[in-house]
Each structure stands twice: as structure tokens, then as C-alpha cells.
Amino acid sequence: MAKITFITHDNKNHTVDVQNGLTVMEGAVQNDIPGIDADCGGGMACATCHVYVKDEWFDKLPVKEDGEEDMLDMAFEPKKNSRLSCQIIVSDDLDGLEVSIPSKQS
Amino acid sequence: MNKTDALIIGAGPTGLFTAHQLKLIGLNCEIVDNLDKIGGQCIELYPDKPIYDIPAVPECTGEELTNNLINQIKPFDIKIHLSERVDEVKKEGDNWIVKTNNDKEFSTPNVIIAGGVGSFEPRKFPVKECEKFENKSLFYSIRDKKIFEGKTVSIFGGGDSALDWAVELSKNSKVNLIHRRDDFRGAQATVDTVNELAKDGKINLYTKYQMSSIEGDDQVKSINIKNDNNETKNLKTDYVLGFFGLIMQLGPIANWGLNIDKKTIEVDTEKFETNQKGIYAVGDICNYPGKLKLILSGFHEGALAARACFKLARPDEKYRFEFTTSSKTIKERLGVKGD
To answer: Which of A1, A22, A32, B240 is deepest in the core (most CB within 10 A)?
Structure first.
């Protein structure tokens, strides 16, 4: 279990408990966090679960696979700390993770 | 006006198999899709990716699945209207009148929405001012490449579309190619060509840059591009092209008076009918307790929705369930010989 904080574009913090083994995207969808569309359902085929990972957390996450960087090309305003939240799998190590959600996904 | 027993919106796997089911029970149908090709997400998003959970098919790609489904409906003469987006659905007497963005009209008692996550639209630039220039000097697809001759064109993107057009337009135009990172995801041969053209000064390559602003009055005059270190460059340009792939938008479906929750349409699990009589939703776009977004679920939903269409299309006849293995009528429809 990990506590994950989603910071929405209006600067509101939403902290939720997410079970180990789920993805950060699934944690957002199950808790109705606004701004994570996840159109393709986690297939790394759409870039609508795009988040910005807080800098101190970015290097602690497992590195991106090739396909993720390709999809990020298509995300709305990608930055250095961009990730697809469907590709981040939750574990105890991610307790306290903070991600911000872009102003929109498309 | 096209008259049909059922109109299917969406030519993905669910739409194609639903058409098969309709024809099998003796109803006619037509299919409309916003894309210029058949296959929906299978073709647009993952043509080469293997799928492992189609019953009785241990492994196939999105493209193979689509081709098999097209083969399966070959015995039937089904009209598929591509590059047509359904904009309007309204009731007229017992029928639904369906209009597309190109003014094609259909009259039908049954509309089956097999629209996936909506229609595919080009992803646009985040910079809001771009809207002002859209379809005048800023484009997301190219209809007539002649307009770029002798002009400066700034192309954004790192996939095949961006690279192919950069190579092609560099023959007769001054081309800037801008991409947010060093790696391109297009075909290696094209990447090599682009790098060579860049070395020869035929293409100006700006990697790790993205658009930060756009300037001009009626026409684009220049753009500013910025990298991760906030370094900005100003590029004079006549045209801007963006190739960021496609995104799925629910689009006009939202305005048809259907019960919609989180981009999906609520249906019952007997007929997969929506809150509007004669409008059904099947596949990824429908929602009911226990819904799984799997292709196999779409097949089941389509089969049941097709049977539900029978009542409205043939009010004076009674639908009789038959197996394809034994029904003479079905074999005739399929054009196969009985034994």
C-alpha cells in the first residue's frame, strides 16, 4: 500500500491509498481523480494518463520502456519529468509519491 | 437518403462482427466510421501488437484480427462509409435520421453505436493561439502539398508522418523539423534520410524543442520554440504542421440525449439498448455492471444487440433462433452449400 498524492491543475491535493500491484493510473481512476482520462485502459496506446512526477521522485521510479517515451511525444505539454501513470506500478517504496496532472490530456 | 435496417457507427472489431450478426439473421446494415480505414483502435493504435485473448485464436495482431473480420463479412454486401463522422441523430416517426459531417443521411429504425472511445481526431498544439491559424496556415494533415512550394514550413513531431513530410517537402520548401527529444520513433530508414538532409542543410533540425508561442495576423509569421533549459529560438515561417498522432474524442455522441458516464454510454444487458429506444451501444463505449473492455465482450454485446434490432426492423415477423451449422437459410445468406 502506498499513499499517493495527485495535484490537480487547480492546485488541489488529492491523497489516496493505492494497493500494491495496481498502477498509479488505476489508483487515480478508482478514486475518481479528475484529469486522468486513461482512454486506452492502460495499454500504453493513448497518453491520456500523463502526469508530471515530482523531481525528487522521478529518479526513484523504474525507468521508462521505449514505447512510453514514444507515447509521451503525443502527450499534452510533455516535460522532462513526464510519465504515463499507467506504467508506474505501485509498491510500498512509492509511499508518499506526488504527481501533478496537466491542465488537460488532449 | 440511405435506408437500412440498422446503422452501425464504428468499423472496429465490434462494429464489424455486429454487422456479421445482423446479416446472418437476415437484416441489412451499413457502417459509418470517422477514420479513413477499417479496424478502429486495432488498426490505428496497435496494428502490430499481438493480442492473446481472442477465443480460439492463440495470438494475432490488431491488423490480422481486422483482416479476419473483414473476410468473415465478405459473403455479405455491406456498405462501409469511411471518413464520415456522425454528427447528428434525431427521431422522425419510427425512424432515426442520422447525418454525417459530409451531409450523408441515413434513415433507420436501429442505430448501433460501436464507437470505442469516440472518434479519432488529430492531437493539437497546446499553444492556444494556434486555433486562429488552423486550416489556413497551420495544419494537422496535408491535402494539397503544392501550397508549400517555395515557402518555409515548420514541422513538429517525431513519428513517421512528421519525418515523411519533412523529407518530401524538403524538395521544394525550406523545412524546419522540431521535436521534443533526440530520438525519433519513425522508421529507421526515414530517420537516416532526415539526418542526412539535415547534414546537407536541406532540413533545419531542432531537437529537444517544443512550441512556446506563435505570431502572425491572418497568416503565421513566426513561431517561438523553447527547450527544457528555457532557451528560446524565433523561427520565421509561412506554415506550421503538427503531427502528434490521433486522440479519441467522444465528440458529437455527447449531444444525442444518451445517459453518459465517464465517456461511456449506459445500456441494459439484454439488448444493449440505451435510454433511447432503437439506439444501442456495444463494445468499449458501453457501460453496465461488470463491463469488461475486451474485444470478446464486444462480440457478445453485438450479437445480442443485432437480435434486438430485428423487432424494430421487421415488426410483423418473428425472430427465430438458428445455428449456422444447421440452418439452410443462414447457409444461403452466407453463400455456402448445404450438405
So the answer is: B240
What CATH number did the domain enclosing A31 receive?
3.10.20.30
Given B45, B46, B185, which is nearest A73 (Cβ)? B185
**Number of structural domains, chain A?**
1
Is the Cβ of B128 closer than 8 Å to some Cβ of chain A?
no
Contact assignment for B117 to A40 by CB distance below 8 Å = yes
In a domain, B339, yes or no: no
Q: Are residues B138 and B225 in the same domain?
A: yes
- AA identity, residue B240: V
* CA atoms lying within 13 Å on the CB side of residue B234: 6
CB B136 within 8 Å of CB B113: no
Q: Residue B338: pLDDT above 80?
A: no
B158/A78 CB distance under 8 A: no
Asked if the interface predicted TM-score (ipTM) of this complex is over 0.85, the answer is: no
Q: What is the mean pLDDT of residues A74-103?
A: 94
Q: Is A66 exposed, middle or buried (0-12, 13-18, 19+ CB in 10 A)?
A: exposed
pLDDT value of position A66 = 79
Chain A residues near residue B179 by CB distance under 8 angstroms: 73
Last residue of a domain, one of B244, B277, B299: B244
Partner B contacted by A74 (CB < 8 A): yes
For residue B81, the one-letter residue type is H
Q: Which residue range is the domain that position B142 belongs to? A: 124-244
Q: Does B248 touch chain A (CB under 8 A)?
A: yes
Res. B339 pLDDT band, cuts 50 70 90: low
Instruction: Give B73's pLDDT tier (boundaries 50, 70, 90).
Output: very high
User: In this predicted model, what pLDDT tens digit does every residue of A41-83 receive, in sequence order?
Assistant: 888 888 899 999 999 999 999 999 878 998 898 888 899 899 9
Residue A35 sits at the vertex; the CA angle it makes with A32 and A40, to the nearest 5 degrees, is 85
Judge whether A46 lies within some domain.
Answer: yes
Residues B234 and B131 in one domain: yes
The CATH number covering residue B178 comes to 3.50.50.60
Compute the nearest-CA separation of A64 from chain B (Å). 14
Contact B86, B102 (CB under 8 A): no
- For the entire predicted model, the pTM comes to 0.77
